[in-house]
Amino acid sequence: MIAVSRFMIQQDFMVLSDSPELLERIRAASDGDERFPFHRFHVDRNKYYNCSLSLIYDSGSVLIGKILMFNDITEMKESESRLRENARQLSELNAFKDKLFTVVAHDIRDPIALLVSLTELLGDELTAADFENAELVRELKGQVQNTFQLVENLLDWYRSQKGMVVFRPLGWNLQQVVRQALLLSGTKASMKQIRMTEWINEKLTVRADKEMLDLILRNLLSNAIKFTGIGGAIDIRADMEGDMIIVSVRDNGAGIDDQTSELLRLEEPFLKSMANGDNSEDMRFGLTLIREFVRIHGGSLWFESEPGVGTTFSFTLPGSAGGLASFDDGGMKEEAYESDFGGR
């Protein structure tokens, strides 16, 4: 006897008559229950089943029948097929992205870097008599530098997204690191006659990855300079709070309006242009990288801003007020971290 579950729909009831190999398997079954996959083509569609074949005995050991139950898993199989296709397309898109960033790194970055150098040389050659041309060159120089900074941030973001971010923390004198960052940003600040001041105790020491810390400071200073008017001021301060050091970069620039502040706090990796002045479209990848690298250090990033008054960005890093000698080999060690991006 061959019985079928009473919940089986009529079209599946025809499976046995259309599948002689299935009938043969049922007849051959003689020892224990069986479970096996089965599929057939029905009404222009492949149908997939998980089959369960059970033997029925009387009160003794006499076989009196067999029950075959079908579990229709067609939808699940089709979903798996769609997922595999999506995975294939995603793999192709990732491969295209890698090729695209290779082009950006070599065929776009290098020419822009050359343009930066050429505009700097051109600006140095102009005399006071070329005032009208000097203004044009200054604007051109600023646009080229902004584009170069965008490409640099884009490449930094891409490298972090490639997989594992290597984290090599060491003890660094915070005052020296900040002064180095101020020196590198000095030319851009002097063009707008911006005064940059550091207020950091010479004993403060952070345990940080130097490359990550340089990028954090470079991006915060770049944004501060960008949104601070001619003759403005930028201050960098640092204070101990427990075993963490709070570093703050404050400017007296245009500030950030409420709508833009809310968008920045969403931690989205990419933002469309925001209405906060002519340079607001440049607020893209910098904060993304800062937020991620601060997180890797075990710190946090936040900002306070008032339109027309200025903005203060603050972040925390593990540190000490006892100088480099206060650090031993314990604590944070070199590790690899998965990228987990959100941000500006």
What features would you describe in this structure?
There is one protein chain. With 344 residues, this protein is of the alpha+beta class. The protein folds into three domains: 2-72; 94-162; 165-338, Histidine kinase-like ATPase, C-terminal domain (Heat Shock Protein 90, 2-Layer Sandwich), CATH 3.30.565. The protein is built from nine helices and 13 strands. The strands form three sheets. Strands 6, 7, 8, 9, 10, 11 and 12 form a seven-stranded mixed β-sheet that branches. The protein is elongated. It starts with a strand and ends in a 6-residue tail after the last strand.
Q: Which secondary structure elements does this structure contain, and how are they paired or packed?
A:
Layout: E1 2-4, H1 10-13, H2 15-18, H3 20-28, E2 34-41, E3 46-57, E4 63-72, H4 74-125, H5 131-161, E5 164-167, E6 170-173, H6 174-191, E7 195-199, E8 205-208, H7 210-226, E9 233-241, E10 244-251, H8 258-265, H9 286-296, E11 301-306, E12 310-320, E13 335-338
Parallel strand pairs: 1-4, 7-9
Antiparallel strand pairs: 2-3, 3-4, 5-13, 6-8, 8-12, 9-10, 10-12, 11-12
Helix pairs in contact: 4-5, 6-7, 7-9
